[in-house]
Amino acid sequence: MRPFIIFSFILLYSVSLQTQSSEKLFLDLKNAEDISIENSPELRLLNSQQKIKGLIVTENWRNYFPTASVTWFRNSNVIENEADSRSQRVSLNLDQVIYDGGRRKLALQAAMYDLDLSKYDLLLSINDLRFKVRNAYYGILSNLAQTELQARSIERQKEQLKFANRELSLGETTEVQVLQISNRLNEIQLQLKKTEIALNTGIEEFKILMRLPSATQLALKDRIEDGYDFSFKVIPEQDLIDLAFRSRVEFDRTKAAELQSASEFEIAKAYYIPTLSIGSYLASSGDRYEPRQREYGFNFKMSMAIGPNSIQDSSNYISRAEDTNRALTSSTTIGIYDNLQYKRKIAQSAIAAEQAKITRKQLDDIIRIEVHKALQNYNVSWQALILADENADSFEKRLKIKQRQVDIGETRRVDLAETEIFYLEAQKAKINARVQFLLSVSQLELAVGASLDSLRIINLKSS
């Protein structure tokens, strides 16, 4: 019974997996975008980096406050032919930087600007991912529409080929004309195979983009032919530019980048400014725990860089045994050529600051160009959509006329097959024009920094 139970469990588990893998995931565009954003590892990484940079800001705030530490020193000496000696010492130490030439403030500003940059990078990455999802989504809808058109066309061509073979058997047509109709049928079937390959490739790439399991089956709710209400709005270019200047996060991002690089440059240039700090301690010492001999002290520290060298100086005042034992000590340490990186830091930060400044100054023209290009694409795409619709309607009428002419014997079936090919090309151009217009609207919204679908140029028809 035991092997039978194990086998039954494995069988039920495999059937459960097959049932789950056979379930379809019905998607509209909004659901696809939400799933992609939720599953994106890049966005998760940016979000984690944002948290880390927030912690860095907290760390820089901490530098304004004094540091404290508690030390417990224990010592035991064993010397032959002499009495053993033991000592205990517990001390509380405080240290506070009182002057550093503004480096703490600059470091805090740089950290805060870096945090702002991470927020802007996250917003830009979300918009970029949403546009990629739309591009892939519309591509799948386009291929689905084309497969439906080509499948219907194949059925019509098969019917015409059947009639042509009957006419050939009756001697009413030639074998050459039958072969021409057959060739046209094969041509459409070849187009269908190519479209199916593109459709399957697009679906698999879409699942990769959405980070879905490979066994997931997708079903899209929208239709490119009759699922959207297309409209056109005449929007003045200057209004779009003004909106972009108010809405594009790149302006705040480049400003934050410029301020961050400027702060880092100022920190690098202030290498020679000394850092001054004061400290104090309170301690108890003795030969056993709890030590009872009190002592306290104060210190003054100075550290600075002199070119590639460094210097550190400290002075200490110590009072023991109720101020009956006092000491004043000082020490100076000079590091020789232990700060060679100061020139490199100045050069690097200067170049970064200048580059950030140039980028900010050029951003106005870049945004203007992007808005102008997106608006031109939007206008041209609408004109192309109108022409493609008119051309498709014209060929559809021609196809119906040719069909009637063939039925009454006024034209050859070969001419109908030729018209079918032109009709398919016109329908394909119509679908591509609709996809291009959808993408041009999204590109225009991204160019002005507006939320996608906020211009309300395209509306999804209610099902």
Outline the secondary-structure elements.
Elements: H1 2-22, E1 24-27, H2 29-39, H3 41-62, E2 67-77, E3 85-99, H4 103-170, H5 175-210, E4 217-220, E5 228-230, H6 237-247, H7 249-269, E6 275-286, E7 293-306, E8 309-320, E9 325-335, H8 341-408, H9 413-447, E10 458-460
Parallel strand pairs: 1-4
Antiparallel strand pairs: 2-3, 3-6, 5-10, 6-7, 7-8, 8-9
Architecture overview:
The chain is of the alpha+beta class. The protein has a single domain, classed as Outer membrane efflux proteins (OEP) (Up-down Bundle). The protein contains nine helices and ten strands. Strand 8 and strand 9 (325-335) form a beta hairpin. Helix 3 packs antiparallel against helix 4 (103-170) and helix 7 (249-269) packs antiparallel against helix 8 (341-408). The longest helix is centred in the first third of the chain and has 68 residues, at 103-170. The two termini are 54 Å apart. It comes from Leptospira idonii. Belongs to the outer membrane factor (OMF) (TC 1.B.17) family.
